[in-house]
Structures are given as structure tokens and as C-alpha cells.
Amino acid sequence: MNISSNTQPIHGNYRGYYTKRPFVHDPRLTLLPTSIFKDARVLDVGCNEGWVTCEIAQSWGARRVIGVDIDDTLVRAAWKRRRTVWSQQEPATHEATPADDHPSKGKKRKKCSEECHEFPRIPRPEYFPASCEHMFSPLPIPAARSPEDAHTFPHNVMFYTADWVNHDIPEDANQYDVVVAFSISKWIHLNGGDEGLRCFFHRVHSVLLPGGKFVLEPQEWETYAKARRMDAKLKENAKSLQLRPEDFERVLSEIGFGPAQHVGITGEGGFRRPVDIYVKTG
Ligand SMILES: C[S@@+](CC[C@H](N)C(=O)[O-])C[C@H]1O[C@@H](n2cnc3c(N)ncnc32)[C@H](O)[C@@H]1O
């Protein structure tokens, strides 16, 4: 969907979002069990400029990671981000082990053979400084040379433009082990009402494999007030909302998810939010 940069970001489609919440490792991801993405097919709904999507693909051992966003400008920025992340990554000639700043670091160490199996050859992110890309332009992405390459960054990440609440993307047909929805429920709720949000939760359930995990970072109800002032339609929609974020667990259980696992709260100021995991049980 082509959304003009002159209009209000009524879908939360902020440009430069990650300059407002800068990170090396996204603090929301560090709350999750380190094995959650290992060998997983992952969908990141509302991927924005792809920073979280690329981190999952690069540093968490995911097999394939799909980012989808309603705003094509952001999706183009996400493809660019993939190249930036690739340009800064440690060259493959090193026998890489978990990077010093990888979330697994500092946890109880296993024997090397086991550990290498757990985190096989994760090259260091941000090995080269950002200035290299500015001086020499980003590195080209080489063709995948082996089937294993296809499941390693940067070949294991792809982006699509779609209003995912209302439209499938081709990857959905193969289903996912994990669906990530960070800071998007408010925007879906305000644009589509309670029905739109229920539809989103049903869609997540339908694309997850049995036992698959839904990782949700819902925005607090208090933050809806500022968002709805952005646009007359959102303001009107907000009047009919019956559901509140504290109802999401009940709605998800009616759809076929187990109880919420509250893994923590993170973020600064207005970005301070809980992260919850729901397992598809039914
Ligand atoms: C506030 S941003 C959060 C970005 C990212 N998930 C994060 O937390 O780092 C919300 C994103 O969801 C996207 N979005 C909103 N509604 C969407 C929809 N129906 N389908 C796909 N993307 C959507 C917006 O364009 C925006 O990039």
C-alpha cells in the first residue's frame, strides 16, 4: 500500500522509528527465551524499517524471517536495512561463536560442541562501523552458495508490503513457528475496531503451526488517546471500542491460545510496555 509521507502515520507507520528507540539488541527480544527463534519460520507483522526483523534473522538462529508492513516506503527502507546490517557484519572467514554482546553471552556456558550446535557460526553484528558504509557504500549481497546459506542472514530474510490483517502474503501458506507483533495492536484496533483486532488475532492463529508462539507487545489503553487525535476516522472508531488491552488474553484464549506468559516489561518512557507469549493450543 502506497501511503503518502504527507499524511499522518495513522497505522503507526512512523519514518525514522528506530532513531527514536535506538538499540544494539532490541530490549524486547532480550526478554524472550534464547531458543524461541532457533530454526524457526518467523513472521514479524508491522516490521516498519526492518530493524527487529533483521536482528532475528541475523542473531537468533532463525531459519526464515518474513517482515510485512502496510507502508511500502517502510518496506523499501527495510530492504535497505538488510544491506546495512550485512555491510557491518563480521566477514565469514572467522570461526564465529556467539558475539560478545549476543543475548546468550553471560548465560551458563555449555561444552563448545553443544554451544556451536545451539548458535552455529553467528557472525558478530556491527563488526564494521556504520561509517564504512557511508564511505564505501553498502556491500553487495552475494548469491546463496549452498542450501544452508538460504537459512542464514542475509538470505533468510524477506519483506512484503501488505495490510496483513486483511490480505495474505504468499509465505503464509507454509505457516510459521513464531509470529511477532510488537507495538502494532493499538494501530490495528484503532483502524479496524474490535472486529479488526479479533480478525488479526484469528489470522495469527490460522498461520501458526500447532504449538506455534505469538509474541505480543500490546500498547497500553492510555496511549490510545493521543493516537486517536491524529485523525477523524480513528477518533470515530475509538468511540465504539469495547475491548481493552487487558481483555486480549481472554479473546486469545477463546480463539485457541494458552494463557499469557508475561516475560517482562521493557522500554523507556512512552515505550515502556509488556511483552507476552501465547502458545497455539487449539
Ligand atoms: C509503531 S510501529 C512498530 C514497528 C515494529 N513492530 C517495532 O515495534 O519495532 C507499527 C508498524 O505496524 C505497521 N502496520 C500497522 N498496521 C498494519 C497492517 N494492517 N498490516 C501491516 N503492517 C501494519 C505500521 O506501518 C508500522 O510500521
Task: Explain what this protein looks like in three dimensions.
Helix 7 (185-207) crosses helix 9 (232-239). This protein starts with 16 loop residues before the first helix and ends with a strand. A seven-stranded mixed β-sheet has the order 3-2-1-4-5-7-6. It has helices spanning 17-20, 27-30, 51-59, 72-88, 112-118, 130-136, 185-207, 224-228, 232-239, 248-255; strands spanning 41-45, 64-69, 157-161, 176-182, 208-217, 261-266, 273-279. Strand 6 and strand 7 (273-279) form a beta hairpin. The protein is of the alpha/beta class and 282 residues long. Its EC number is 2.1.1.-. InterPro entries: Bin3-like, Bin3_C, BIN3_SAM-bd_dom, Methyltransf_25, SAM-dependent_MTases_sf. Residues 86-108 are annotated as: Disordered. It is an enzyme of class 2 (transferase).
